[in-house]
Specification:
Shape of chain B: globular
Order of helices and strands of chain A: EEHEEEEEHHHHHHH
CATH class of the largest domain in chain A: Mainly Alpha
Oligomer: heterodimer
Number of strands of chain B: 19
Largest interface: A-B, 79 and 79 residues
CATH architecture of the largest domain in chain A: Orthogonal Bundle
Largest sheet of chain B: 5 strands, parallel
CATH superfamily of the largest domain in chain A: Alpha-helical ferredoxin
CATH topology of the largest domain in chain A: Fumarate Reductase Iron-sulfur Protein, Chain B, domain 2
Number of strands of chain A: 7
Strand order of the largest sheet of chain B: 5-2-1-9-17
Strand content of chain B: 5-15%
Largest sheet of chain A: 5 strands, mixed
Number of domains of chain B: 3
Strand order of the largest sheet of chain A: 2-1-5-3-4
Radius of gyration of chain B: 25 Å
Distance between the termini of chain A: 61 Å
CATH superfamily of the largest domain in chain B: FAD/NAD(P)-binding domain
CATH class of the largest domain in chain B: Alpha Beta
Structural class of chain B: alpha+beta
Chain lengths: 248, 666
């Protein structure tokens, strides 16, 4: 198939940036979206132009590195996939595709489609862990029973890949689905209880400091999340946050 | 004579590690804060090492090329992590895990290292659970296990099909705690481009900030390389796009020996390639072989009909199918080790039985499992005379609970529903058992420079068993390196901060800068990928699942010629002072072009078949790998300029606690 691409080009954080049109031809429907971008870049390099910078790594939907906003949707039109898992069979010959970076105040553009998501790391530094040293003397893994239900629910929350699609999709650029998922994973497990109060308070404080917006329950984040992280996690975080503030 | 000293402690195997720990020198807590350690790579090995070293009190700097440590490619490991817990009471033990690993590695790994790995494996599970890793549990709240290839017990712990992700997030959370304490300084979107040696010891690195292009100097009392394997030398592999050999190769060029580069694992259950544009291959967990049956049609007419779309796989009756693994290996069946399963698939496809357009695919069929689980469920729920549809529905639900995310991934990529039609699979490059040579302390032949995880060579011999990579990465990082590095650093308590304004740093930085400037100014004809793809094709065709002397000799010549052409004609766009992915990639491919040749040379010298290394000249009448006792050694290569000049050092492998036998899975 032949396609017209409208791609955001921005040389660095200080550049104003603009949309630029490109044509690609003979794209196979079996290609992934990023392989289509590879074809474009190879074409640009051979013409002596600068290739389009975009983040990508594992190309199997788990690392959370890829981050394009395609035709107005984070990771494009398919559901439950990252951009690297989006296949060209989702598009038709002759389509025009608009490709932008994930946009949010807390995600400044580094170059073209590459954005800085280190705010997510800093939120995790604020409390995304259980304080246990590596000693080799930790109690036996089966010493504390954890119900299958709780383990499965914690796993569902822990599935988050930290890509930032939730933030990019939210009209308020809120990070509450991401933070809610992390808070939930630990809140659902007995190991996470000891630090629960401080964890939720510190992570929320850091989230606010980074300039993410608030949640107004629109639910776009859940729809666009490649891993199907549920809005329930936001509710659980709110509950944890409220009870933490009542307790101390 | 060899200069290799493995430093394996004396004494009985079972007590070596404990005795060793009891006698090493320690660094007192007050002195640890005066000691800096650099960790390159933040996957399971690097992440767990960085967190543990920082907990102990050392000042740690971590480096990764990704935008966050959490994205290292350990995250993509699906199936699970082995540990000799014997929770299932099925006869597992430290010795059995040790035995399985040495046998699985085709008797080409170091006994003492493997035993230690098995010994600390149980601690890993305890540690990860304490960190909040949500491993799968049964209804009683106890941890669940599954079985993996090459073993007869269920010792694999898992978190759905995302075990690597959950373990990495566990290590990352431990890192976060230390970052918050100020004990780890993370340098993300940074790439190590050289190691700096002072008085023969590793004392720092030169790194490039991938966002600004700035070249930075970082000093430390020890440097730990945890940058993973080199599977991307094949261009197409299951590695991440950015996975590279550069950190390992740089230390190799500065004096670290590189061991057994030809031991590469070709994983049997990957999604077959579909076209020339393909950028990477996708693996599906080996756990699928617990329930999937592998087959090709018995008759070539059926193969032809399937390729032409005239027949569907589901049209073939049982007796028209060749379940070749069950036929050849009745004892292990579909759960033979990876190298055996991969070669068997290649054998069938080479004979013309491949089931897709490229002729490189076999079926992985879940119909029997769905039926078996469905009948079981019907019985459990007391549904008498359940219809075929009902049985299918009940069985599919169980299969979905076990492998749902893998099935979804397959469907997204191939656009076929694996609940309804068998999956198509073909082997792909996945893991490299070879790597930087290390002694028992995990130290390379450069004093103060360590290599852990997939980056080193030590534990998997010529073939790695499933669910053992995660085990090794975390064992090295959480439980081995933190002890062994202390023994070395105890001599550094009075050294003080290492300055970076020294001639050694000047020289290393100049070398790095010159190379970067060369790439940008070269303005050649061909892109970096042009060379990478060519290299990959040579590697796959001549150093792939089976190798012979003639092919390897021509590979050496071709790679050497390709490398010359690369240095003449490579084209790298952009500038040095910006985010420039092509520039970063050029440096990585330059290193792959050297490694590839050493790889072929190593494969040529190893005139036997062992594990993932299959020499056509050395096979039994049934086509099984034929190991030779005179090759019971580790090949450790010393860099001497061009790869062809590399000098071979041998570490003889001694087996005192295990009988070296022909590896049989029949």
């Amino acid at each position: 198939m032949n396609l017209t691409l409208k791609i955001w080009r921005q040389s660095d954080a200080n550049d104003k940036g603009k949309m630029v049109d490109y044509k690609v031809t003979e794209i196979s429907e079996h290609m992934s979206f990023l392989e289509m971008m590879d074809v474009l870049n190879e074409q640009l390099i051979n013409k002596g132009e600068e290739p389009v910078a975009f983040d990508h790594d594992c190309r199997e939907g788990i690392c959370g590195m890829c981050s394009m906003f395609i035709n107005g949707e984070a990771h494009g039109p398919d559901r439950g996939v990252t951009t690297c898992q989006l296949h060209m069979r989702m598009f038709k010959d002759g389509d025009t595709i608009t490709i932008e970076p994930f946009r949010a105040k807390a995600f400044p553009v580094i170059k073209d489609l590459v954005v800085d998501r280190s705010a997510f790391d800093r939120i995790q530094h604020a409390g995304g862990y259980i304080s246990v040293n590596t000693s080799g003397n930790t109690q036996d893994a089966n010493a504390t029973l954890i119900s299958k239900h709780a383990a499965d629910e914690a796993m569902d929350a822990a599935t988050c890949i930290g890509c930032g699609a939730c933030v990019a999709s939210c009209k308020n650029a809120s990070a509450m689905l991401f933070v809610g998922a992390k808070v939930s994973q630990y809140a659902l497990l007995p190991q996470g209880q000891v630090e629960a109060v401080d964890r939720v308070k510190n992570m929320v404080a850091q989230m606010d400091l980074e300039g993410f917006g608030n949640c107004t329950n629109t639910g776009a984040c859940e729809v666009e999340c490649p891993k199907g992280i549920s809005l329930e996690n936001i509710a659980r975080m709110n509950r944890e946050f409220l009870s933490a503030n009542v307790k101390s | 004579m060899s200069v290799l000293d493995s430093k394996v402690p004396k004494g009985p195997l079972e007590t070596k590690w404990t005795d060793y720990k009891n006698h090493i020198d320690l660094v007192n807590p007050a002195n640890k804060r005066n000691i800096d350690i650099i960790v390159v790579g933040t996957g399971l090995a690097g992440g767990s090492a960085a967190a543990t070293l920082a907990e102990l009190g050392y000042n740690v700097k971590t480096f990764c090329y990704q935008d966050s440590p959490r994205r290292a490619h350990s995250i993509a490991a699906q199936g699970g992590i082995n540990a000799a817990k014997n929770y299932q009471g099925d006869g597992d033990s430290t010795y059995r895990l040790f035995y399985d690993t040495v046998k699985g590695g085709d008797y080409r790994s170091r006994e003492a290292n493997v035993y230690r790995l098995a010994e600390v494996s149980a601690n890993i599970i305890d540690q990860c659970v304490a960190q909040g890793v949500p491993f799968a549990r049964d209804y009683g709240g106890l941890l669940d296990n599954r079985s993996f290839g090459g073993v007869l017990v269920s010792r694999t712990f898992y978190a759905k099909g995302q075990t690597g992700q959950q373990l990495l997030l566990g290590a990352y959370s431990a890192m976060n705690r230390q970052i918050a304490r100020g004990k780890i300084t993370p340098f993300n979107r940074h790439e190590m481009l050289d190691v700096v040696k002072i008085d023969g010891k590793a004392r720092g690195i030169i790194a490039r900030n991938l966002v600004t292009g700035e070249i930075e100097r970082h000093s430390a009392h020890a440097v730990v390389i945890a940058s993973g394997g080199y599977g991307n030398v094949y261009f197409l592999s299951t590695n991440a796009m950015g996975s590279n050999v550069t950190a390992s190769w740089k230390i190799h060029k500065k004096g670290a020996f590189f061991a057994n580069p030809c031991y590469t694992q070709i994983h049997p259950t990957c999604i077959p390639r579909s076209g020339d544009y393909q950028s990477k291959l996708t693996l599906m967990s080996e756990s699928l072989r617990n329930d999937g049956r592998i087959w090709v049609p018995k008759n070539l007419e059926d193969v032809k009909a399937i390729r032409e779309g005239k027949k569907k796989p589901t049209d073939l009756s049982e007796d028209e199918r060749d379940y070749y693994l069950e036929r050849r290996y009745p004892a292990f069946g579909n759960l033979v080790p990876r190298d055996v399963a991969s070669r068997a698939a290649k054998e069938r496809c080479d004979a013309g039985y491949g089931v897709n357009a490229t002729g490189e695919a076999v079926y992985l069929d879940f119909a029997a499992a769905i039926e078996r689980y469905g009948k079981e469920q019907a019985k459990i729920h007391g549904i008498n005379n359940a219809s075929a549809d009902k049985i299918y529905e009940l069985g599919a639900a169980i299969v979905k609970a076990k492998y749902g995310n893998l099935f979804q991934m397959y469907e997204k990529i191939v656009d076929q529903d694996p609940y309804k039609t068998p999956m198509m699979i073909y082997p792909a490059v996945h893991y490299t058992m070879g790597g930087v040579w290390v002694d028992y302390n995990l130290m390379t032949t450069i004093p103060g420079c360590y290599a852990i995880g997939e980056a080193n060579f030590s534990d998997h011999g010529a073939n790695r068993l499933g669910a053992s990579a995660l085990m090794q990465g975390l064992a090295d990082g959480y439980f081995v390196l933190p002890y062994t590095i202390g023994d070395y650093l105890s001599n550094d308590i009075r050294t003080g901060k290492i300055p970076t304004d020294t001639p050694e740093f000047d020289a290393a930085e100049k070398e790095v800068t010159d190379r970067i400037n060369f790439f940008i100014n070269n303005k050649g004809e061909h892109s970096v990928d042009y060379y990478h793809k060519k290299l990959g094709k040579i590697m796959w065709d001549k150093c792939g699942m089976s190798r012979n002397a003639e092919g390897l000799k021509s590979a050496i010549d071709e790679i050497s010629a390709l490398r010359k052409d690369f240095w003449k004609n490579v084209n790298v766009p952009g500038t040095t002072t910006e985010y420039n992915e092509q520039l970063a990639k050029a440096g990585r491919v330059a290193d792959f072009l050297e490694l590839g040749e050493l790889f072929a040379k190593d494969a040529l010298v190893r005139e036997e078949s062992a594990g993932g290394h299959f020499r056509e000249e050395h096979q039994t009448e049934e086509g099984e790998a034929k190991r030779l006792s005179e090759f019971q050694f580790v090949s450790a290569w010393e860099y001497k300029g061009e790869p062809k000049d590399a000098v071979l050092h041998k570490e003889e492998l001694v087996y005192e606690n295990i009988e070296v036998k022909e590896r049989s899975y029949k």
